[in-house]
Amino acid sequence: MTIIVAGQIEVQPGQRQRFLDGSQMAMRLARETTGCEDFVVAADPLDEQRVNVFEVWRSRQALHDFRDAGPDDGLTALIVRARVREYEV
Q1: Considering only CA atoms, which of 1, 26, 21 is closest in space to residue 11?
Q2: C-alpha span between 53 and 60 (Å, rounded)
Q3: Digits of tens for pLDDT over the chain (89 positions)?
Q4: Strands 50-57 and 36-43, bridge-based pairing
Q5: What count of other Cβ atoms lies within 10 Å of the Cβ of residue 14?
Q6: Cα–Cα dist 8/49, whole Å
Q7: pTM to 2 decimal places
């Protein structure tokens, strides 16, 4: 089983680059984590407040273990709205 996490995050006006910069450590840590096959947070090319999220995990347990141990980077304060879902394939 594979878990895909995908969606969009809307950040406060003018805060996208700060959000992206702050996401680099989480991306690096995730990619080094057992069970992570891919993890990316990227700027949307058309919407200056939108960030796209895409993750691939070998199991739901690996995903949740990472979420529970991941860094608390304070980025949640920059989020206006998140539309991110988990898909089991």
Answers
A1: 21
A2: 17
A3: 999 999 999 999 999 999 999 999 999 999 999 999 999 999 999 999 999 999 999 999 999 999 876 556 688 999 999 999 999 99
A4: antiparallel
A5: 10
A6: 10
A7: 0.90
Token duo for residue 22: 């702050």
In Å, what is the CA distance from 68 to each residue of 11, 18, 21, 80? 23, 23, 21, 22
Strand-pair category, 79-88 with 36-43: unpaired
Is residue 64 helix, strand or coil? Answer: helix
Contact 4, 62 (CB under 8 A): no
Q: Which domains, ranges and CATH numbers included, belong to the chain?
A: 3-88 (3.30.70.100)
Joined together, the tokens standing for residue 15 give 């805060």
Buried b (16+ CB within 10 A) or exposed e, 21-43: ebbeebbeebeebebbeebebee
